[in-house]
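Ticket 4471: requesting a sanity check on a complex prediction with iron/sulfur cluster. Repro inputs:
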Amino acid sequence: MANIMIRKTAEGGLSFYLPKRDLEDNIVSIEFDQTNKWGGELRLANGGTYYVDPLDAPPRLPISLRAKRVDAPE
Amino acid sequence: MSKLTREETESLIQEVLEVYPEKARKDRAKHLAVNDPSVEQSKKCITSNRKSLPGVMTIRGCAYAGSRGVVWGPVKDMIHISHGPVGCGQYSRAGRRNYYVGATGVNTFAEMNFTSDFQEKDIVFGGDKKLTKLIQEIEQLFPLHKGISVQSECPIGLIGDDIEAVSKKAAAELDKVVVPVRCEGFRGVSQSLGHHIANDALRDWVLGNRDGKTFESTPYDVTIIGDYNIGGDAWASRIFLEEMGLRVIAQWSGDGTIAEMENTPKAKLNLLHCYRSMNYISRHMEEKYGIPWMEYNFFGPTKIEESLRRIAGFFDDTIKEGAERVITKYKPMMEAVIAKYKPRLQGKRVMLYVGGLRPRHVIGAYEDLGMEVVGTGYEFAHGDDYDRTIKEMGDATLLYDDVTGFELEEFVKRIKPDLVGSGIKEKYIYQKMGIPFRQMHSWDYSGPYHGYDGFAIFARDMDMTLNNPCWGKQTPPWKVLKSDDALKAAA
Ligand code: SF4
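Returned structure tokens:
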């Protein structure tokens, strides 16, 4: 588990920031993006996948969350 | 010398690495790279923010330097106690030339060194009592100070003093901010963690202090974050931000005050110059207060124009017009500077090795003068800094992270740049090698280099250094082979 931050990019997408590993990358897909459920598996542009516990509603961004590494390229 | 190809640069790296024992070679190889602007993530080509190799000469500082020297030091109306032995603070006192207005010793203190001057008995019995006494003395001698920060040096962490408790008690007694900062030099691999710790201390002890209090704001309130006013940099930036209609409500932290920092959450936009040292606090404010932040670059007219338009993009038409007005106003001045210096500097090649933001930010300014940066590197960057650098640098140029004294010398000998820009520790080595050198940490006692006014000074300084007649006089007269005519004339 690591602290991460998700924020909106200037282009309107989502970006994923993991300070511990200096990792800042765009999120290409998010498992749940509904009005009553938000989060789950996050797929990054670099091929890595992280998991955040789904929230009950889409949060105000940026937000700091705890994430689990499912699969990372390196 | 003409440009090196990718293969040549790669073999240059291999050659330089050859002298190391195998383990060291493997480690250092990861920190040296040939740039490829098409790479998206720097991780694929360069490793950074790792512990320096024992035995090599590194140019890094410590976490205390990052907190006391960089982030907190310039906050002018606070007193920053270098808590621990006297040396750490005394040898770094006022070295960064963070300019400020105020009467030093009366209501501003940035140039002074306050220390608890630890002795053996303080190590043995603990220094908390001494710190309490020191704070009382400060209050007596300098009643106009607006707050105190306790910057821990190495021993504090080792002996386990409770500076938080002392600070809390003192803050209640004095009714002023007293901030304990756990920036012991041994934390982390470089000064970079010191920046982070300092940012966290600001977040925990300062930022929220005025939450809920009223503030007369305007829709155009911005802050300058990560400009340390070296040689007046922040002033040279602020002047035209205000000209375009914005109101700068805080400077972090060059010429800054604690009140400005506490008011920062009231801003509409945080303008971030040094990403490395203050991105943490900017990200925090974005999350907590919903203030967007934007990285800008005020080195050289091209980048300034780009940045001004991007800044204006956050505001309405008055600011957009203001930005255009500022750009048009300074254009003739910039054209005159370029007309004067470009012919003297055109085609010259530069190698940089600095910290923070400069290894990438100044590239634009050199390009405006027709110069080319052929090698660059950071003392304490992280991956995200290299992500941003790769795009700025040309193809097949050299990147070096936490370069060692030996490597940089060898690179310079082979690449033969016309100018090297790095720190004071490198300055005299390269000057003795006959290579023009600028000290790019504190602008070689010159500056400002930011903004329009700064660019004029930057251009002049580069010309002054590069075209100085002394470089042609490196060989003493008695070693110059005299022709017969000259001998006869002398006889
Ligand atoms: S490493 Fe420790 S002892 Fe050395 S300057 Fe930094 S704080 Fe002082």
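Notes from triage: The CA atoms of residues 1 and 68 of chain A lie 5 Å apart. Leaving this open until the requester confirms.
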